[in-house]
Amino acid sequence: MNSVMTRYGELSGVEFHTLFSNGKTDGCLVTRPNLLKTPYGEIVPQYEAEDMGRRTLKPMYFYKDGSLKSVALQTQSMIDTPVGRFPAELVTFHKNGAIRRVFPLDGSLSGFWSWQNEFALAEAATFDTPVGRLEAKLINIQFYESGALKSITLWPGQVITLSTPLGDIPVRKGVAFYESGEIRSFEPLKKTAVLTPIGQVLAYDNEPNGIHGDVNSVQLAPDGSIEALSTVDHAVVVSLPDQNGEVFRPGVKNNVCGDERKVSVPMKIRFENNRVVFHENPRFSFEISKYRFRIKALAEDINEPVYSCG
Q1: Which of 191, 194, 184, 125 is nearest to 160 (CA)?
Q2: For residue 4, how many other CB atoms are within 10 A of its CB?
């Protein structure tokens, strides 16, 4: 076994490591306890897997200048962040040494260890944000290189009430911020009426990206105006004066369980440069001042997606 000197202290019990061209460590496993001193607190990198939830021994990674890129911790430890102290099992860093993401839990999901098992271990955190103090169980929290809060990702079932330019809105999955502190995007818990440049639309995504809260279906510009949203309830009729309209609408697909139920495929509507774009397709782009837009409620008998077929 080798020892490797890092800017945070000496690592002993190194089983393997690779080197950059400058001789600095790229990544390594350690198999004995090591105490490293970082600007965010003292940490002990993972050196053994204690239970079925953390079976895999994860390596530490470094940037070429020797600063930490990511490190899994042996036990959950308190880490100082720009918005307060957080428990952490995995921490990643920017090149400038600033914290990038903090994961309170870092379980290995499998047939023997589910996200429900992880959720049962999660504890609610209270933290400051540009829109006030929030409390929730987090999958992770992300920061810009400057230390400004970038996004938070919520566990399934967690809900926070967010003060937005559109009003106080219950939010699931996550919320993202601009570096200057304004809300960049959020995922509404329920169908929410949003006034857009073409009329009022019910915003809701029935299948939001569940991986992280960095990008959400309701997206805002820094001035608080609407940039994009998803809808499963409204179609939009687009026409020139005195002409028949072209209809843009959410899609419909079969439920994943293979039964006869149908579920909606959300329609994405984006606003940019005084134009509206449907389905993220440049061919479906219209100058708002030249066309007429009519919002049409849908009456199809459709359902929420079902992922458990038992």
Answers
A1: 125
A2: 18
In sequence order, the 6+-apart residues with CB closer than 8 A to the CB of 18 are 25, 26, 27, 28
In the numeric block, the tokens 């308190």 are attached to: 78
Helices marked H in the chain: 115-121
Phi, psi of 283 (to 5 degrees): -70, -20
- 204 by DSSP, 3-state: which? coil
Q: How far is CA 95 from the centre of its chain?
A: 21
Close Cβ partners of 60 (under 8 Å, ≥ 6 residues apart): 11, 27, 28, 29, 30, 45, 68, 70, 71, 72
Rounded Cα distance, 159 and 190, in Å? 11
**Model pLDDT for residues 92-127, shown as the tens digit of each residue:** 999 999 999 999 998 665 555 566 777 677 789 999
Q: Residue 244 — very low, low, confident or very high, per pLDDT cuts 50/70/90?
A: confident
Question: Look-up: residue for tokens 């970082």?
Answer: 38
End-to-end, the C-alpha distance of the chain in Å comes to 50
- What is the pLDDT confidence band of residue 49, given thresholds at 50, 70 and 90? confident
Q: Which of 146, 133, 155, 35 is closest to 84 using CA atoms?
A: 133
- Alpha carbons 224 and 103: distance in angstroms, whole number: 29
Please tell me whether the overall predicted TM-score, pTM, comes out greater than 0.85 for this model.
yes
Buried b (16+ CB within 10 A) or exposed e, 137-163: bbbbbbbbeeebbbbbbbbeebebebe
Tokens (6 digits) for 76 = 């959950």
Separation of alpha carbons 261 and 254, rounded Å: 6
- Tokens 């940019």 locate to 272
Greatest mean pLDDT among 48-52, 114-118, 194-198 lies in: 194-198
